[in-house]
Each structure stands twice: as structure tokens, then as C-alpha cells.
Amino acid sequence: MSNSDMKLVVVGAAGRMGQALIRVIHETEGVKLHAAVGREGSAFIGKDAGELAGVGPLGVPVTTDPLQAFLDAEGVLDFTTPATSVAFAGLAAQARIVHVIGTTGCSVTDEEKFQAAARHARVVKSGNMSLGVNLLGVLAGQAAKALPAAGWDIEIVEMHHKHKVDAPSGTALLLGEAAAKGRGIDLAGQSVRVRDGHTGPRPAGTIGFATLRGGSVVGDHSVILAGEGELVTLSHSARDRSIFARGAVTAALWARDKKPGFYSMLDVLGLS
Ligand code: NAD
Fold it and tell me: What angle do the packed helices 131-146 and 170-183 form, to 10 degrees?
């Protein structure tokens, strides 16, 4: 460990992603765990964050006090809930540090608050921090552009573990946005998020979403372009949460010397 290591705070430290983040920080050169923040009332408060994540003691107890945790920190890695991420965005802006937001299911109002925080913080936000999914988004955009809307319907199918609380996934929406951009259309006005009962034929030019939930699936996504007599499927399967955690750490290091602003993983990966 060296003095120049980037000092990172993991919020939501007891969560599935929180623990993956602690493990990846531990094994990555150039970063160190500065503090770990958990939810008020959690059984993990006061416990060593490293022991919690299975990498042995790190001398960093899980705290409920973000103000203390953000003191002298250089970045915050945040995979929590929309309301929590909005609150932490305000604190990261005050501290003028890097805020990497992986939380999904955020509303338009939440997004406006992240944009406002980005006047002072360096915010990197993405519904999926993995290299593979961000590349898939670029490919989906190219495919949507190349295959004419008149003959090719776009459907996005996703499956996640049974504990996931928002739908469609942030990744499915990211892929939908990429396809919509490729087609030059507005996703909000053109998406079909649910089908049930006598729906009538598929409205031309729309982008459909289908959501599956079950078991321990980390995240599977397919973008299907369905034409007359042929089908193109672009897909990604996440086998391990460490791909998102590695992406988040890469994003923090990338943003370390950037100006305040709102960035995406495409900026970090040079795919924008
Ligand atoms: P999880 O429920 O296992 O973890 C969330 C954690 O946040 C919990 O431990 C909870 O106690 C904690 N938390 C909630 N409010 C808090 C507060 N006020 N202070 C401190 N901690 C608080 O969920 P998860 O599977 O780790 O996913 C978390 C989020 O990340 C979800 O929105 C999920 O969709 C998203 N996610 C994003 C990516 C990506 O690459 N962008 C990848 C995986 C998951």
C-alpha cells in the first residue's frame, strides 16, 4: 500500500455489491479502503469490513456516519438505493470528491439531483459498470442503426436473481437507450415495458422489455432484433459481481483527476 493510493469509501458495505467492492479494492493496486458505511440498525455496524467481505481484517469498522467516513476520502463507491444515493450525492458534492453510482431504479427527479451534484462532484453513473455490457450497448446501437425499423423489431430480455427490487434492470434500460439512440428515437415515448392480456399487434418501431426473476442469476441480458425470417441476438451473461466492482474501481481511478461533471462508463472505457 502506498500514500498515493486513492482513498475510497464503500457505502452499502454489507450489501451484495458492497462486499464485492471491498474484495476488489483489497486486491487492486492504487486504491485503499478508507471507510465503510452501513445502514442504521444493520447487524454489521462496528464489524470489520474486511472480515465481513471475507478477505480478513482491514482495520476498517463499518460505520453509520457518512460525514466521518467522507473526511479525507477521495471517492465513494455507491451501490445502494435511489434515496440513499441522492443523499450521498449531496455529501460527495460538498466534499468535492468522486462519486461512482451504480444504484439502479432511480427516478427522473433523482437523476436531476445527481446532475446538480455533478457541478461540484465528479459523478460517474451507469446502470452497468462492466466492460462487456458497455460494449454490448455500443453494438446494440450499431445494430439498431443498421437494421431498418420498418422490418426489424427490438426486444430486450433480462433475468436477475430473486432479490432484485427494480424492473426492468438498469442494464436493460441502458441497452434500450443505446438501441433507441441508434434508431434516432426517444426511448421514453417508444418503449413497451409490460404486456398482459389482449394487447393487439405489436406497435411498429417500439422497443419491448421482458423481465425474468429467479434464483441467484447475477444478470443476463439479450437484445433481440427480430426481422422477417431472421433474428439477430446480442447477449451478455454476468457470472460474477466482481465485474461490476472492478468497473466501479476503474471509474473512480479514471475520475480522480477529472473536472467536476457527470460521466458515464462509456467515457471511462473510451467507448463514447
Ligand atoms: P443489496 O440490497 O445487497 O445492497 C444494498 C445495500 O445498501 C444494503 O446492504 C443496504 O443495507 C445498504 N443501504 C441502504 N440504505 C443505506 C444507507 N442509508 N446507508 C448505508 N447503507 C445503506 O443490493 P445489491 O445487489 O448490492 O445492489 C445494490 C444496487 O446496485 C441495486 O440498485 C442494483 O440494481 C445495483 N447494481 C448495479 C450494478 C451496476 O453495474 N451498475 C451491478 C449490480 C447491482
Answer: 30
